[in-house]
Amino acid sequence: MVGPLLRTLLLHQNPWLVDPGRLRASVAERLPAQLIPRRAAAGVRRAIAEHPDRAHLIVGPRQAGKSTLVWALIAERPGPLLFLNCEEPLVREWCRSPGLFLAELDDWLPPGGLLFLEEAQWLDEAGLFLKGLVDGRIGRTLVATGSASFHLLARTRESLAGRATRHHVWPLSLVEVAPPVAGQVPAAHRAVARRPLEKMLVRGGYPRVWPTADPAGELSELAAAFVLRDASDRFRIARPDALRKLLALAAGQVGDLVRYSEWARILGVAGTTVADYVALLEETHILCTVRPFLGGKRAEFTQAPKVYYLDNGLRNTLAGGFERIERRSDVGKLLENWVFSELHKRFPGPGDVRYWRTRGGAEVDFVLEPGPARLVGVEVRATAADRPGLSRSTRSFIEAYAPERMLIVHQGEEGRMEAEGMDVEFVPAECLPWVLDGLAPPPA
Q1: What does each C-alpha distance from 67 to 85, 263, 423 come to in angstroms?
Q2: What are phi and psi of 280, to 5 degrees?
Q3: 139-144 mean pLDDT
């Protein structure tokens, strides 16, 4: 029930309810001065138009730009709006019962308006609440953001089947910070994209970090917010000190095979605790583990995963620092981690991105299956392949699996060569996102 305290809170957070003429200005105040258009916006816009009776979930890491995307869409269609910040205890209490909530909604939002639930994962039963609103034929556009699939999706996937559309918002991709300009020739676009790539390798792609002169300070705040607030307070992690050390270990071992038993020994915790912490970091979009591709045509190494950060900037906060790319000794790890992040943004499902390794040590960095009976290999080289050639590992993979495409991502020029009857493509790193667009379906 909306009591006096909640009423005061709602009117404070929604000043346009008192003065509808303030809506446009209030929305503009919530948008950054330099708004970077997000690729996910088109999918959300289309889903709202095609499925007005569903909930539209926008999920992704903390501070990746989910709320900004929603406010930008609201700016395109200002109209009746009710904004609810679900971190507020009074709002969470109001959202305990979808039936009672709907009974009072007419007092706050007329039919045809937009209901925006920010940080919906804070609701005790987010899935059941959203299901109740959809089943209750809310008669309004329903949009919800959530910073972690740990709460918003793990509990809602089954209850919201057929009732919701889902859209991922990740840290910025190179495509978003260096979009081609109409009429620009490819060579010019490559030159333009090179500098943002070098910047992204070091500071990553979190929107609030991208324009700042102090990436270290901004990223340290983000890392501290996760460890201190989310882990210690919200997820009740018993050993936040061990979690911090695990994050530092992962940062130093990007792209390496990971042994949880070794990490457990270093951290002084049980192996199951390490596995639980890694799973939590995956659910909250900080780390990603990559499992091996097991095609069965070679003696594949089948045990250890590899670990990557979703964002280079967070990785560098914990290991490596923020020296310019030309002064660094870890360029190989940075480039490989960035390539993984671009792959993951286009192929985010479990197991969509894997690696290949045999017991004899032959290895291909990444293996994709972008569709039925389709296989793509990706090898990353930290330097320019001035004389295009293939490693024995790459030749072994091509011979065994005859992939549809083999991409060699490097810091040199475009090129091709034939191997085992197929074209191998040498892809300049700054061109990779556009090559991947040709493999992946449009973002949801």
Answers
A1: 11, 36, 43
A2: -65, -45
A3: 96
The two tokens of residue 302 are 């089948």
Would you tell me the crossing angle of helices 240-252 and 260-267 to the nearest 10 degrees? Answer: 130
What is the pTM for the complete model shown? Answer: 0.92
Nearest CA-CA partner of 296 in 347, 356, 349:
356
How many distinct helices (H) and strands (E) make up the chain?
18, 13
pLDDT the model gives residue 443: 57
Give the residue carrying structure tokens 């020739």. 185
Around 395, how many Cα atoms within 13 Å sit in the side-chain half-sphere? 8
Each residue's pLDDT tens digit, 181-216: 877 787 888 888 999 999 999 999 999 999 888 899
Q: Are 139 and 112 in contact (CB under 8 A)?
A: yes
All structural domains of the chain, each given as residue ranges with its CATH number in brackets, are 4-169 (3.40.50.300), 175-437 (no CATH)
CA distance 218 to 438: 34
The amino acid that residue 398 corresponds to is I
DSSP codes, 341-362 = HHHHHHS-STTSEEEEEBTTS-
